[in-house]
UniProtKB/TrEMBL annotation:
GO molecular function per UniProt: manganese ion binding
Location in the cell: Secreted, Extracellular space, Apoplast
Keyword set, alphabetical order: Apoplast, Disulfide bond, Glycoprotein, Manganese, Metal-binding, Secreted, Signal
Gene name in the database record: LOC111318620
Name of this protein: Germin-like protein
Record lineage: Eukaryota, Viridiplantae, Streptophyta, Embryophyta, Tracheophyta
Boundaries of every Cupin type-1 domain copy: 52-199
InterPro entries the UniProt entry points to: Cupin_1, Germin, Germin_Mn-BS, RmlC-like_jellyroll, RmlC_Cupin_sf
Length: 209
């Protein structure tokens, strides 16, 4: 009987220790792979749990004619440690989110209006999964896989995106290759592009070398 009571006491103690309602990010602290440290609870306010930026249309007057408005932990401290985040995706006609990956999260995209052609590529057999989505459609992009979104329509498109991480990470393939100082000859060797193509893309995206 004593053993049972002792075990029950340990369970209650462990549950109490783990039962923390939230850990609002202290954005002035250092971010680690496990997230930010917690803001003092006495300094937490309702503003930490509300984000209004997704109601504002993004500026799509750029080279990709697209805008992503993130509601990640850096903009929305209340998400810290909760394993979730969101973003707004605006695509003008002809807009594109180039091939990219989120190393830390799976993505779930919901089309609010317009049409969005989206796809991802599997890592095992390089199989392409492609679909044109309409209002009300949802598509999932598995964690770490290259994927993209394009608006081939004549009207703007809007999607709301959710991630199973407060900080999903982002790497856009084109920018990784052509928007830095990686020497052109190395880019050519690893992509099978010729020198003229590489130099042109570096010029467009601001790379050098």
């Amino acid at each position: 009987m004593l053993h049972v009571l002792f075990l029950f006491s340990l369970i209650l103690t462990s549950t109490h220790v783990l039962a923390q309602d939230f850990c609002v990010a202290n954005l002035k602290g250092v971010q680690t792979p496990s997230g930010y440290s917690c803001k003092m609870e006495s300094k937490v306010t309702i503003k930490d749990f509300v984000f209004t930026g997704l109601g504002v249309e993004g500026n799509t007057t750029n080279i990709i004619k697209a805008a992503v408005t993130p509601a990640f932990v850096g903009q929305f401290p209340g998400l810290n440690g909760l394993g979730i985040s969101a973003a707004r995706l605006d695509l003008a006609p002809g807009g594109v989110v180039p091939m990219h990956t989120h190393p830390a999260a799976t993505e779930l995209l919901y089309v609010e209006h317009g049409h969005i052609t989206a796809g991802f590529i599997s890592s095992s057999a390089n199989t392409v999964f492609l679909q044109t989505l309409k209002k009300g459609d949802i598509m999932v992009f598995p964690q770490g896989l290259f994927h993209f979104q394009i608006n081939f329509g004549k009207r703007p498109s809007l999607a709301i995106v959710n991630f199973n991480s407060p900080n999903p990470g982002l790497q856009i393939l084109d920018f990784a290759l052509f928007a830095n100082d990686l020497p052109s000859d190395l880019v050519e060797k690893t992509t099978f592009l010729d020198d003229a193509q590489v130099k042109k893309l570096k010029g467009v995206l601001g790379g050098s070398g």
